[in-house]
Amino acid sequence: MRDLSFLKLPQAGTNTAIVFLLILATFVTFFIFLGLLREFLRKKKLKNYFFKEAYDRGLTEIEAQILWEYSIKLGRDPFLTLEFKAPFEKVVDLYLTTDPNPSEKLVQDMRIKLGFDYVPYFVPLVSTKDIELFQPAKLYTESRESFEIALFDKDERFMYWAVIDKKSIPRIKGQKATISFIRKGDGIYKFEEIVEDMFTENGKTILKIPHTFELTRYQRREYSRIEVEIPAQVGIIINDEIKWLSGEIVDISAGGAKVCISLSETQMEIQPMTEIILKFELAGRHFNLKANIVNIYPRRHTTCYGVKFEDIKPDDQKFIYDFVKKEQQKLAQLMVKNRG
To answer: What H or E segment, with its residue span, contains residue 59?
Structure first.
């Protein structure tokens, strides 16, 4: 047989293999280091941008560091804490519950500087920290008893609800309580929490309850509304004839409006479910809409009527919806600017 040994590949020695592996490991380590360095520089650049933005909004270095550090721990984008209330509250809550020496005063200062200390009526509540003082509510015990209460005080960790019901409330310290309240212009809220403590202050029973983000919201209206001052003509259909009255629309949504009419103008009693025609101009567009009266609000010199639009055209409804949304955005920006 012919000798084919000359076709065999050369065998690498042990030293050659070791050198090859070392070179390969060096390259791998270099690329890993390069990737880590690029990530480090990226994060450093982002952090510098974040601190610059925080300083522009009036935050101190300590305040900016807290938002940056606890946003990273929570896995959130730190920039969102400067723009939106919900992520801000989540981040500062982590700070307050995990930092060895948290400062409630510092959190309150940040909230004011960022314009998160006030929630407009058209913006849903994020947590129980947003509930306004003296908000009335109903408290339900585990035994299904109900009591009238009102928010007496609050800090960054607890709410203090005063029992304003005339009947005596039992000892419910350590028990779960359900609290429900109506926020004007928004909706119905409900949450459950354990009563941390009960004590008496100035003759009132005070319930100490921890804050929570677990708020259940039931929207009372299908559409958001905005306050306006729009002259309107209200047509009342009487015996197949239309009697026109002058009025003013004081708030409006894509689903309806509230229109007020002077008592001297009406000289008649308008009943609920009365069908009307509403003529008005909104942002340069003329409307001639059918509506039904669903609520009546008597006042000293005027009577206001809550009306629901009937058979409104989709493009008309969208126009009103877009108008309300834009006005709400303008109002929110104005509030932030004024507080800045």
So the answer is: none
Alpha carbon distance 81, 90 (integer Å): 9
Among 2.40.160.50, 2.40.10.220, 2.40.30.10, 3.40.50.300, name the CATH number for the domain at 225-334.
Answer: 2.40.10.220
- Maximum separation of any 2 CA atoms in the chain, in Å: 126
Domain boundaries, the chain: 21-118, 128-219, 225-334
Residue with tokens 């509510």: 137
Question: Is 0.70 topped by the overall pTM?
Answer: no
Structure tokens at 164: 């304003």
pLDDT digits (tens, 9 = 90+) for 190-201: 999 999 999 999
CB 128 within 8 A of CB 211: yes
CA dihedral sign of residues 308, 310, 315, 316: negative
In angstroms, rounded to a whole number, what is the distance separating the alpha carbons of residues 221 and 225?
9
Q: Which two tokens mark 47?
A: 């952090």
Q: Find tokens 């259909």 and name the residue.
A: 237
Burial class (CB within 10 angstroms; exposed 0-12, middle 13-18, buried 19+) of 50: buried
**199-246 per-position pLDDT tens digit:** 999 889 999 999 999 999 876 666 778 888 899 999 987 777 888 999
